[in-house]
Specification:
With 205 residues, the chain is mainly alpha-helical. It is built from 4 helices and no strands. α2 (68-111) packs antiparallel against α3 (117-153). The longest helix is centred in the middle third of the chain and has 44 residues, at 68-111.
Length: 205
């Protein structure tokens, strides 16, 4: 028996991303792309909404239009609401575009096991969480104001049953939209937390 036996050297540790990092990187890229698309569409739609309302107002000013007076009042109230919230929504959607782009870049760096992946992931997740919370708050505020506008749409002396049906329909639609928005927000925030925790554990101490 030989007193010393040489054993092969252990294989070097893998330098690539783990399975969890790859999965979260794919989620980050997907959420980032959705955010980029949503930010572009949201900014453009908010900037164009005023022009669309102006075009509807010009149409209602056509002589002989039935019920135009009431519709002009509704449009005037809607224009006031749009003018109030549009600047905030445009700015926050542009910030959403920037934050979502950072999220896509962080997912790419995590997939490539880049040394700066952890730092960019923390920055991207934090900025996206803040922007998503602000968007949710502005959306809720707009929905509450929209509910008030529905009361203007119902003429005085209308059938109480019609009034109750309209108000109930608006509340149900708002509740369904709010539940979906809250669920989607919680899913995204949970993904941001999971990404940050995984990258923190994998970061060298």
């Amino acid at each position: 028996m030989e007193p010393f036996t040489s054993y092969p050297d252990p294989p070097p540790p893998s330098s690539g991303p783990s399975s969890a990092q790859k999965a979260l990187a794919a989620v980050a890229i997907m959420l980032g792309v959705l955010g980029v698309v949503g930010g572009c569409c949201g900014a453009v739609s908010n900037m164009a909404s005023g022009a669309m309302l102006d075009a509807q107002t010009d149409l209602l000013n056509t002589p002989g239009m039935q019920g135009a007076e009431q519709q002009r009042e509704v449009l005037a109230a809607t224009q006031a609401a749009v003018a109030k919230w549009a600047p905030y929504m445009v700015v926050v959607q542009l910030l959403n575009l920037v934050a979502s782009t950072l999220l896509v870049l962080s997912g790419v760096l995590v997939w490539r096991a880049h040394e700066k992946a952890s730092v960019l992931t923390f920055v991207a997740c934090g900025s996206n969480a803040v922007v998503d919370l602000v968007i949710a708050g502005l959306t809720v505020a707009q929905q509450l104001e929209t509910q008030e506008l529905t009361r203007i749409m119902i003429p005085a002396g209308a059938d109480p049953n019609v009034d109750a049906a309209v108000q109930t329909g608006v509340k149900v639609a708002m509740m369904a939209g709010t539940c979906f928005a809250v669920g989607w927000l919680l899913a995204k925030v949970s993904s941001y937390v999971a990404m940050s925790m995984v990258m923190r554990r994998s970061s060298p101490s």
